[in-house]
Specification:
homodimer, 877 residues, alpha/beta, D-amino Acid Aminotransferase, Chain A, domain 1, Glucose Oxidase, domain 1, TIM Barrel, eight-stranded parallel beta barrel, 35 helices
């Protein structure tokens, strides 16, 4: 017969803390504490497999379970000296769920089981506290009716309210023992009314019902939803813990508390928590009475406090991690109810990990593994002062973390103008477009009413490390009137607002922000992480400012400089438009000649900021129509026409001829460079003029030229041959030695599939996993919002493939690309520069397929460093 | 020393007809004829490798060439008894190019080489024909000056024109011997004036110059362009043939002619050709004098005719193919100048192949290989009467073959209405959209002013086997005014036009058409082909009519039934729009319930037409917005609003919410089926209701349900499970036995890459190579026109990947899909249903990767059958 029940406590613990899969988190925790010799109220755990067996048997107890439960109950009665249903010394138990993964509040719990009309009297006698006994009894009836039998709690609360009303009191605590006794009677009547049967006076029936209820709660709606959201398999099941009750509410010699072995907010190594005398756990949480700081317990009950400190130190030493503990004091006797790894802020996680290394509790690898890379995000941006009381008027998507305060402006020009006057502004738009970049730079943060987590505003803001709330649907922007409406409020240009990009909240007025503290602990942890990394971490940066920021965060080079903004900026867009409107190659070259000095200056700035480190420059990628207004932007078209001195019709014609049904699959990337070689030639000239000029001055520059959207070997060869010719001529002209590389994005499925041929000419690959995901899946990132949420919800996809790389499919293409490429060129440098380069799960995958580096936005560089270290610790190269 | 020269003729031929790579087409042909003992004027061939060596040496003769040419010249002088430069019996030669592949007219030729002031006098004496001698001389000077020295021919023609003007005559033939002699003097003066040196009187200098000129002509612009267009490698080089001249223009005992061993137009086994007495080859071609039919030669020179007949039969017996021959008679002596496989019409190719099998000349495999599959296209459609004189007013793209005559209409409704009144119409539109389908069906042909070979109009028309001229840019359509303008003409509704979809021509008025004759030869060839095929051939058909047509053409099932039109048709579009506008699943189901009976009836029709053969039905594929008008179609939106009784704003909202930036990568295909399962449920119900109803009546039905755009295994499983549940319930309800399959398109790169997982649930794969090409390359078919032509021109791509599958990349994905799929399910049925399924080159590839079938439009079924047979003959499974 399979073993379905394990005893714990009272010196005869049968399970252990290694048995999490069978005993669940709570059960193995109790077993662990008991084995450590801690004062755990004894009890037993029914295994998770039994839960699955329960379902397999058609929601019935599997054969043998009843016998095993009865045996363990007997052991429990012996250990406690109490007996279920006894009129002298009744055993009361709690029945609690406990799955392998923590699912807080998702499943059911029953307390005080064993109370009946008989046993309650025994409890009165034993505790001399009739109010406590009847209060427990009426709570048990309500809980049982609700959890086991499905009667709405409101029926009971209604009866309680009526009683309070009748007595003219407000709080439960104002009711006395007689009231409670009367309520038990009423509660039983309500029970019978709803269920047509009496409340069970047989404790065994109660126990069976409670165990069933816990089993069933594994498949209640909120548990199912929680599992879906947290990727917990349905097949795991929950264990059931039956544990003898202890009471913190039997009088002033009793109490209950929760504590952390270190400060979960700052990480400081100081016992931290709170407790309440004469209270049950739920009273501490409910917040009706104000609990005392844990330190006060030393004064109130010094012996118990000393015991507790000994226990917490033992626990931390044993688990080698900060613990979150629950305890109860019953008549001056301390019981440990729970211990588990404590949740903590990012800052605390970092400090605890670093200090535990110093204390010799853990080694550096463990410390590095202890901090979730994503937790660092909080540390790197300004935050809303945790002490500030804020009222959000609306909530959008937390599109780019951090918080920002500023005066509202409604377009990029105003943002720039106000900022130049020294104002702090928030740019508010329906959605942003590439033309808004300068305004986004100038603003403290960005708020949009439309667009998702991967909208233009979101992607660009994350790249800039700038706070952004996107898709805030309650905000209705009237850009022309310079005003927005939000849930009845009208916000005008110049009004102050605060946005929280970590939560998506919009707050009217100015809220106090606190700056990130990149304390010594952060630096120490990063230094440890860097010892274990195999992947290099580069950054995506388009400006000297971003490059410097990323370098400060530890970037080891630039993996992606987009050159688009070098075309968009105010001082050159006119020439760019002339170029697009040119009718022949001469006119195009003439217009490009005007742009070239600007681009050269841009590259000088970036190369200088990254001196000594490689800089990957991606040549022009977006379709040309992005540099012209849209067809319905009549006013802008007229402006451009008069500025360039061409007929309006010509601009309209060009816009029409450049229009595309599927721009994602259109005339962009290296296709532009093949059709109009003069555009790429200009860029190559600017790059190498800049590099050679600096080199001549003694600045170390390592340019890596990257061609976007290469899909065929001929594209790569043609573009490379031409670029090398130009580069070498410039290098010769300057008479310098300059190392450089020519490589390509691998972002088209065909490129991944024929990477061996492309590698003949490409000296490095940078996987553009954004586009590779779009084309590999056939999902337009701009449109997939129509079905992706449903896909994730229906489990067609495990996760949004634009956030975490799809290992099975797109990952296979990446793997194929790396392997094929290195077949041709065994030392081929491979990296990734899509958004996935900053996603910890994706980084683990990239480590696994043997990339040389990941590249991500500056603010994600530390996250990537940590994730890369963890990947290599888990799966060393 | 490498051998660079091969002698031919006079019984000492050194090369052979197997040496095409070295001797070029012409050289190996001459060697071949000489070896057969035919009267070939002797000469020698300088090899193609020598041409490459010439370039490698920096446009100089490679070492040893001079000696070998001199040796062979000596042999030639001995064989002919003539001597280069001899004042008694001078040898005159032609110097001609001849590459491995035929490049007609692309490279240079020099005739009459060896004429000088001395030798011309000898020729006068020998021929007693001073006019002939001096005419030959002045032609040579002109040709040499032009071809070898680069002097513009116009200079010489100008002198000739002046002389004619002076003498008051019109034709060259009106000039006498003295005139010709005078011209030679003038020509030499022109030569000296332009080149600053005398015309070379040394025949060896002439010969060296001529050989160099032929070598150089390999790299003239038109040759380079021709090679690019015909995929001939630059590295092949050309051979040079130096051959003793024979003259058909020495008098009335001489002549020249061209002939085919069978009728190249009909294939009839009858000697066919024409000749002219006292003429050179160019005179036959020039058309100034009317040549005589070859049969007349029997009367004029019976001995020569008999010899010629003997020769052509010998040639046909030897080459076992219809030959195109050139001959010259010099003073009653017959010389053979050329023989080669004769070009022929599709009809002739079929007849010749079939008859040659009967004659025992070739075996069936050879016959099947003889006919280019694409040549069948001409046979299957109505054609413009070859005898009709037509004047095209404009030319567009030959988007779908065949010709059509009809009255012009400008929209689909009119097309349907006129057709119902019994009129024949041509639908003329700027471009077509899915809403035009009914009109395209009703029309004889379609003319559009925009769009390429793969535009909507082109693709749909080819699918229907309907003639289409697309992208006829000179046509300016004013759809509202019901009029179009074309190069100064105005064509109104109801005017007659004729379009030729095989050439792209637009002709005003009615031209006589001839019907295709699917004669016995065609059927016999197809029967032979079917013996050798490994691939099955299915058809893409959406209607019973198309299905029947394809069956008549030999289709072995339907590989793709698109169900889109079952939503578009007039009688159901209203309910479809209700469905799209529905706000909840109940309303959607109610609307779908109205569509279901129509779809069921559609399936009944198709299943009946294909009884006994499998029918693959693809569930709804296009995005829902295609069923609504576009946002700017205000009038249509209003109509729909009033028809459905909903506010206009609601329709506008829905159009906006369905709008996509990249619809190709958007919410379509099985994504619709996952988000709105009720739509696919309705289709599955209609399919199986139809199938079971027929089955009950004893009609054999084999439905194969195909889910479009599957990219993940979860999509496949979810859709299949649901479909099987519905199907099995219906089958049980009808109490029939029905075999069916559930499979998927493989058209998303990710699907190809994880085909092993998808094959767990998919029972068959149908490769959708259109979309696989779009997503694999990242090319939107609608937009790629901006760069694809440049890509083909610059050799980035070998061919348009939408016409012939890209074997290297997309082909690799197909291969991967097949192999992975069969790893999971070893007998997985694999087919292709993209446009490539009807392309012979692509079919060869599909045969190679082991597909079970290809599916193509009905009119391409015979082409596919033939191509499949050829593939298996060349590379048997």
């Amino acid at each position: 017969m399979e073993r379905m029940v394990y005893f714990f406590g009272a010196g005869i613990t049968e399970g252990s803390e290694e048995m999490k899969n069978q005993l669940g988190g709570k059960g193995c925790n109790l077993a662990g504490m008991a084995k450590l010799g801690l004062p755990v109220p004894p009890g037993f755990t029914i295994t998770t497999d039994t839960c699955i067996a329960f379902y397999t048997a058609g929601s019935k107890w599997p054969e043998g379970l009843k016998g095993q439960v009865q045996d363990n109950l007997k052991k429990l009665e012996e250990a406690t000296g109490k007996k279920l249903g006894s009129k002298e010394n009744p055993l009361l138990v709690s029945v609690r769920s406990g799955a392998r993964a923590s699912m807080p509040g998702m499943m059911d719990t029953i307390l005080n089981l064993g109370l009946t009309n008989d046993t309650v009297k025994a409890m009165v006698k034993l505790t001399s506290n009739p109010r406590f006994a009847y209060d427990s009894y009426r709570r048990f009836i309500e809980m049982y009716a609700d959890v086991v039998m499905g009667v709405d709690r409101q029926n009971f609360e209604h009866a309680m309210d009526e009683l309070k009303h009748k007595k003219g009191v407000k709080l439960d605590t104002d009711l006395d023992a007689a009231d409670m006794e009367a309520l038990t009677g009423e509660y039983k009547a309500i029970y019978k009314k709803h269920l047509g049967e009496d409340f069970p006076e047989d404790p065994w029936t109660q126990l069976e019902g409670a165990v069933n209820a816990v089993f069933r709660s594994w498949n209640n709606q909120r548990a199912i939803t929680y599992r879906k959201l947290n990727a917990i398999p349905d097949e795991w099941g929950t264990a059931v813990n039956v544990q003898s009750m202890v009471f913190g509410n039997t009088g002033e010699e009793s109490g209950t508390g929760v504590a952390f072995t270190r400060n979960p907010s700052t990480g400081e190594n100081k016992f931290y928590g709170e407790y309440l005398m004469n209270a049950q756990g739920e009273d501490v949480v409910a917040g009706i009475r104000t609990p005392h700081p844990i330190a006060d317990l030393e004064r109130d009950m010094p012996d118990v406090y000393t015991q507790l400190v000994g226990i917490y130190k033992k626990l931390e030493n044993h688990y080698r991690d900060m613990q979150d503990i629950e305890f109860t004091i019953e008549n001056r006797k301390l019981y440990m109810l729970q211990t588990r790894s404590g949740k903590r802020t990012g800052a605390a996680a970092v400090r605890i990990a670093v200090e535990m290394v110093k204390e010799g509790l853990i080694d550096e690898k463990t410390a590095v593994l202890r901090v979730a890379p994503s937790a660092l995000d909080q540390l790197l941006h300004p935050m809303i002062d945790p002490k500030a009381k804020v009222d959000a008027v609306a909530k959008g998507l937390p599109a780019s973390p951090g918080a920002a305060v500023g005066q509202v402006v409604f377009n990029a020009e105003d943002a720039v103008e106000w900022q130049e006057k020294g104002e702090k502004v928030i740019l508010v738009r329906t959605e942003t477009s590439p033309e808004d970049i300068s305004g986004m730079h100038a603003a403290q943060g960005i708020l949009t009413s439309r667009g998702g987590m991967t909208s233009h505003a979101a992607v660009v803001a994350r790249g800039m490390g700038k706070c952004c709330v996107a898709g805030c649907g309650d905000v209705i922007v009237e850009e022309k009137k310079k005003v927005f409406h939000v849930n009845g409020h009208v916000v005008k240009e110049g009004d102050w607002i605060t946005i929280n990009g970590s939560t998506g909240e919009l707050i009217l007025g100015q809220v106090k922000l606190v700056s990130p503290e990149l304390s010594g602990y952060f630096g120490e942890l990063m230094a440890m992480a860097d010892k274990f990394r195999a992947l290099k971490v580069r950054t995506n940066a388009d400006t000297p400012k971003d490059a410097a920021q990323a370098r400060a965060f530890g970037a080891e080079g630039i993996g992606l400089t987009r050159t688009e903004h070098m075309f968009f900026a105010e001082d050159r867009i006119k020439a760019v438009r002339e170029m697009i409107l040119a009718d022949n190659v001469e006119d195009r070259k003439a217009a490009l000649a005007k742009v070239q000095p600007f681009q050269k200056a841009d590259f000088v700035g970036i190369f200088e900021a990254m001196k000594g480190l490689p800089v990957t420059v991606r040549l022009l990628d977006p379709p040309l129509h992005e540099f012209l207004p849209q067809l319905d932007m009549d006013k802008q078209i007229e402006e451009i026409a008069s500025e360039l001195g061409v007929p309006k019709g010509k601009i309209v014609d060009r816009i029409q001829s450049l229009h595309e049904l599927n721009p994602m699959l259109g005339f962009r990337g290296c296709r532009i460079g093949i059709v109009y070689p003069e555009i790429f030639d200009m860029q190559i000239t600017a790059i190498f003029e800049a590099a050679c000029e600096l080199k001549k001055k003694g600045v170390e520059v390592i340019p890596e030229v990257m061609f976007p959207l290469v899909g065929t070997s001929a594209e790569m060869k043609m573009l490379k041959d031409s670029a090398v010719r130009i580069a070498d001529a410039i290098i010769a002209k300057y008479g310098v030695e300059l190392e450089y590389m020519m490589g390509t994005m691998i972002e088209i499925p065909r490129a991944a599939v024929i990477a061996d041929v492309i590698a003949k000419d490409a000296e490095f690959f940078s996987f553009g996993t954004n586009d590779l995901t779009q084309m590999g899946f056939g999902y337009s990132r701009d449109d997939a919002g129509k079905f992706l949420p449903v896909y994730v919800n229906k489990k067609v996809l495990k996760a949004d493939p634009f956030q975490t790389i799809d290992v099975e499919g797109i990952g296979k293409l990446v793997d194929m690309g790396v392997k094929l490429g290195r077949k041709t060129r065994h030392d081929l440098k491979c990296g990734v520069c899509g958004e996935h380069g900053g996603d910890p799960d994706s980084i683990e995958f990239f480590h696994g397929v043997g990339l040389n580096y990941v590249s991500c936005s500056p603010f994600r560089v530390p996250i990537a460093r940590l994730a890369a270290a963890q990947a290599n610790i888990k799966n060393p190269r």
